[in-house]
Amino acid sequence: MQKCPGATLCCLVIATGIGTWIASLIFGSLTRLIIDENSETSWILRFIYTILGYATVFLPCWVLIHLSQKHNLHSLGGFQWKLLRLLLTGNTSETIISDPDSEQLIETIQPVKTEPVLSLYHNAKHLIFCCAGLQVSYLLWGVLQEKIMTKEYLDGDKVEKFTDSQFLVFVNRILAFAFSGIYLLVSRPNVHRTPLYKYSFCSISNTLSSWCQYEALKFISFPTQVLAKSAKVIPVMLMGKLISRTQYKNYEYATALLISIGMTAFLLGSSEGKKGNTVTTISGVVLLLGYLIFDSFTANWQSALFKEHRPSSVQMMCGVNLMSCLFTSASLIQQGGFFYSLSFAARHPSFISDCLLTAVSSAAGQLFIFATISKFGAVVFTIIMTVRQGLSILLSCILYHHHLSEVGIFGIVVVFVAIFMRIYYGQRDKRRQLMASAESNVSKV
To answer: Which residues cross the membrane (predicted)?
Structure first.
């Protein structure tokens, strides 16, 4: 048989989806017998449910992609095959661009060279605007994130806490997808050449990192989580060596060691034991490690996609969030998360405003990230976000009365000193490379 008929392909994909759904329900029921839903380790059960929900989308898509590539179905005519081409090639055109050198080879995160040179006043005004946008959006996002996952909502005499982290991830992702999609519609983006299915890998890791981040707030304080994010340079370096065989400078290892020392001092010196429970502490640490691992994979996979297919930052944002919406919605439907979250929102109207503000601030923050990097570069963006992390810890301590001892404050200072050292030496290293390259070009002439 030379070609796999569309009807057969459709039946195989549907059968895979139904089979995966049934298998996940059975496995989930068996897991519930082992893990108590009301215990401190019930997050393990929710994590398993989340993975099984993602599998009901991932496995049918894998069958679709495998059979389509095997039988070259995306080369056929017709609307349905155009959608398949978008999934497999990133473009609906039957003629696939194979020469990336014919397109813009300038990194999409760099400022466009054809734009007029702006005055110092205009540059300063744009920088202040981007800095204010990042600080406001992400400070608001952090405060609301902690409020939703840790504070109690009152309904008369009844007190409840919201527990479904997956729903918050879904709302954030669907709004970010809408923001980036509208931006692409009203702008003139580069030609898209990234197969949509390749976004799925970093989409899964991205949603799981966000899930771990929300779940961790049930066991640890927000300052600890923020400082752990500052320490993610360590797993990113390890993941880079594992995936891309990246070589690092001595100052990168030194600053990573300082960040580890600072994190240890903070954790030992902060009296935050939310429940004074060993199980709680272990759960919080495991979830933080999960966040760091998934987030470091996301960064390295996205970096590989940028190098291979050259999407713009907004195209990457749109593609990843589209896949995240598919995965999280399937998981929520399977777990009954939509019904629980909507009924919770009906009982507590203030939750709706908190949830929407969190999603809006997260999506707006992503757009400010793109604007800042495109105009001022990654180093300026890193400095702004480092300051934001310090302000987030300070604001959280003021609003939610987290206590920090002298040792804990020393740990915070060490972490941020290490981050700024990394920025300084990284920038100095880039200048040396540029000077060496310029001298090499002069010698050739």
So the answer is: 7-31, 43-65, 127-144, 167-186, 251-269, 281-301, 378-401, 407-425
